[in-house]
Structure formats: structure tokens, C-alpha cells
Amino acid sequence: MKNTIKYYYNFDNINLIRSNESMYIKYKQEIYVFCRIINKDETLEIYSLTRNMPNFYQFIINKDNSIFTPYQNNLCVLLKVTPKKNITFKTNRVVLPYKNYLLDRSNWYELWTKKNDYFEYQQHHIYGKFKIIDESINYYIGLAENAISYISYNIRNETIQEQKTICHKRIDKNGYFNPLNCVIDYKERDLAEYLKYIFLNKQYLSLNLEKIVISFNSTKRGYTLLFGRLLYPSFYFDLYERIINNYDNENKLIEIIKRNKEYEEYLKNIYSIINKYTDIKKVDWL
Q1: Across the strands, what pairs with 58?
Q2: How would you label 131-167 residue by residue, b for 16+ Cβ within 10 Å and e otherwise?
Q3: What tens digit of pLDDT does each residue of 100-141 get?
Q4: Which of 21, 110, 125, 186 gives 20 to 30 Å between its CA and that of 62?
């Protein structure tokens, strides 16, 4: 890797630092991260959208005047890491023009339905290999089905179009400022993922949830989207996929599973906050 970095970026005397699954590079007191990309066209789109946004890591152009560098039969990009900041949810967001985006992930109904079908199919083939997953996954598939039904019943047939913005696939301390963690979606995605993040990290107990939710200043449709996304247990499925692909230990699920009732109470609390300001549909079992 050192030879590749030297050849394409003219970086001499670098130090390589591996952290989790990322390779960081220290050069002249600056930190960079070298990332393999999955989709070239989607990466070009996010580069175009974020290159002038200082909060995101910045793409570095190589000697060929390209953001893409070949390495071990893959295409990679080099990103300059900005100094670490705290993750805070911001209500002021860049509204994107109406157009088709490769990174558009706003069809939650279709995406969630396909994923749920895949998880159910997959369970028939891996049953017995992961005891904790076998004992827990039906609860989370049920939650996902509730989220799908909630969005389908309350949103899917409406003709109103919410504007879209740059969002995060997930919100976590490692990927929040990385543009490769970005998608195009409704702004409600980021607030929902932020609310999940502060729950999982037990930060919500010391924060003013009502202020966070209401400062969002959304519409009735927007808060319905928000609550539907909170119902979807992405935090479980993300870890589930890492486990069955041998990237994580199954025991990590225990902490999530034992907080099921706490998360249900969390959802009830957020529903009550929203309904002080606008009336959205209730989930009967909550």
C-alpha cells in the first residue's frame, strides 16, 4: 500500500494505522483514510454533492487527476480526515433539486420488504448455526413488518412529495463525517438514525428528547416517516449481517436484545412527544 500511496499521491514517509476495517494514513501531521469503493458512479455522485461541504472528509485527487486509485484489483479513494467533532443533529440541511439520483434510498417500503423476504429466506439456510439469532430474529422481523405496514398504510399512497437531502446510511462515530456513508433520502432518515444512535449509546437519558424531535419542525407526513423509520430495527439487522459474514461475534447481540422493552418505551415516549404537536397514527401494541 505504501508504494501505491507514494506513486499516486506523492506521499513519502507515511505511517499506516489500521483501525477496525479501515486503513488510516498519517502524512505530515494530517490523517487520511484509504477506502475501497463499491460503486464507481455512486461515488462520483456523492463526490459531486459533498466536495464543497467542509463537514465531510475531503476527496484527494491523485496524479491522474482522478479520485479513483486502483489497488489490489479494487478501486479506492483517499479521503482527508477532518478533526474529530461530536455528532450533533442539525435541522438546517441542503435541499436537493428534484431529479433522479443513483444514491436515492427513499423507497423504504420496497427496500425493507426485499430485505425482510431475504432474511426469512436466509434463516432456512443458517438455522442452527447461530443460537442467539435463532432465538431473537423473529421479534425483529416482526418489528420490520410493523414498520413496513406503518409506512404502507400511512404514506405509500399519498401524492405529496417531500424534498430530499444528503443523509447518512447510518449514524455512528466512525462514519458520520465520511462521504462514502452518504445517501440521498428524506431528512427524516437522519433524525431517526440519530435517535437510534443516542438510544444505543444511552445518551438519550441526559438529552432533551422533546427539544430534539420538535426542533426538527417537520410536517405530519414527515413525523409519520420518522416514526416508521424508528420502528425499523436497522441496528439489529446491521449487526446480524456482520455476524453471519464473520465480521462480528454473535454475543454482541445480547446487549441489543436485553433492551427490547426499553426501546419499546423509548418509541412510546417519542410518539407522545410528536402527538403533542401533530396527530400521527398510533401503533396498537405500543
Answers
A1: 80
A2: ebbeebbeebbebbbbbbebbeebbeeeeeebebbbb
A3: 999 999 999 999 999 999 999 999 899 999 999 999 999 999
A4: 21
Average pLDDT, the chain: 91
d(CA 163, CA 156): 15
Confidence band of 86 (pLDDT split at 50, 70, 90) = confident
Q: Kindly report the backbone phi and psi dihedral angles of residue 182, in degrees, each rounded to the nearest multiple of 5, phi listed first.
A: -100, 150
Provide the pLDDT for residue 112.
Answer: 97
Degrees to nearest 5, angle at CA 99 with 219 and 230: 40
Contact between 236 and 256 (Cβ < 8 Å):
yes
Rounded CA separation 183/169 (Å): 6
pLDDT at residue 218 in the model: 83
What is the C-alpha to C-alpha distance for residues 195 and 192, in angstroms, rounded to an integer? 5
Question: Which secondary-structure segment (H or E) carries 136?
Answer: helix 131-151
Residue 134 has which C-alpha cell?
435463532
Burial status of residue 31 (CB atoms within 10 A of its CB: 0-12, 13-18, 19 or more): middle
- Separation of alpha carbons 247 and 219, rounded Å: 39
